[in-house]
Amino acid sequence: MSHTTSKVILFSYTNYPGLITNLERQGVKMSQEDLLRHGSFTFDLEGVSRAASHQIVRHRIASFSQQSQRYVKITRSYGYLKPTGIPEDLKVPVEIHGHKLEVNFEDVMDLTRQAEEGFVAKGIKAEDSRYLRPNAATTNIVMSMSPRQLIHFFNLRCAPDAQWEIRDLAWSMYATVSLVAPTVFGPLPVADESEYVRKRVLLVKDLVEKQLGAFEKTLPGELFHLDLQLYFDLGHPVESFVRRY
Q1: Is the same domain home to 164 and 228?
Q2: Which CATH number covers residue 234?
Q3: Same domain, yes or no, for 113 and 145?
Q4: Rounded CA gap, 231 and 218, in Å?
Q5: pLDDT digits (tens, 9 = 90+) for 144-164
Q6: Nearest-angstrom CA–CA distance, 210 and 207
Q7: Closest residue by Cα to residue 245 from 225, 213, 224, 220
């Protein structure tokens, strides 16, 4: 069964109102530039394809912890992300030892899982058998960035020419940080050059304003569901959450 839903969870973040208040008591005033340097946002990204995770970890000024696939147990139920641009009924011809078959995306995913399980059953190490795993296979990754680096990430990954999956994740992440730190994450610089980005930034602003009251009523430690699907036509389903502090 395909894994078509990803999750973006803003797990921890700098409490800027508290930070600013405490520093002002010590006679320290923070400029907007200071706010971008001092702070950290940690995301738990779940159900992300390996294709997208490879792009994410290219942002080198960040901290990452990714689920190891070396010893992950192989089962027929492990998830994968199917691009919505590939029709369910689309089949392509393949030939194996002279035998011609018509297969769809799900068939190929199932074949790779069966082959990986088969190699393990024959005594091949799991770390070697996993070489069969496709880029569509999902993984989980924890990512921490400063506001400055996040804005750089958003400028690149929220753009209309970004790859669809990482663009969906980036907009979901931008919405969550806009909810908890609106004074730090305002309009993205790239919005000056892109009507697409400018319109979406306004949609996020409207989303935050409408859901801020419900977020502030959320009990500390609980996850608040920020429903982005009502506002954005995402390339695939992404559930967005913010842990309330």
Answers
A1: yes
A2: 3.30.70.3180
A3: no
A4: 21
A5: 999 999 999 999 999 999 999
A6: 5
A7: 220
Taking residues 54-82, report their average pLDDT.
64
Please write the tens of the pLDDT for every residue from 84-126. Answer: 889 989 999 999 999 999 999 999 999 998 999 999 999 999 8
Same-domain pairing of 150 and 43:
yes
Residue 113 lies in a domain: yes
69 Cβ contact partners less than 8 Å away, ≥ 6 residues apart: 130, 133, 137, 139
**Residue 230: helix, strand or coil by DSSP?**
coil
The reply to whether 159 and 233 lie within a common domain is yes
Q: CA-CA distance, 199 to 189, in Å (whole number)?
A: 13
The residue range of the domain holding 110 is: 92-132
> Does the residue 78 lie in any domain?
no
- Catalytic residue numbers, as ranges: 157
At residue 197 the predicted structure's pLDDT band, cuts being 50, 70 and 90, is very high
**HSE-CB of 233 using CA atoms within 13 angstroms:** 4
Tokens 């913010």 sit at which residue?
242
- How confident is the model at residue 151, as a pLDDT? 93
Query: Which of 133, 177, 150, 143 has the alpha carbon at shortest distance from 46?
Result: 143
Rounded distance, CA 14 to CA 23, Å?
14
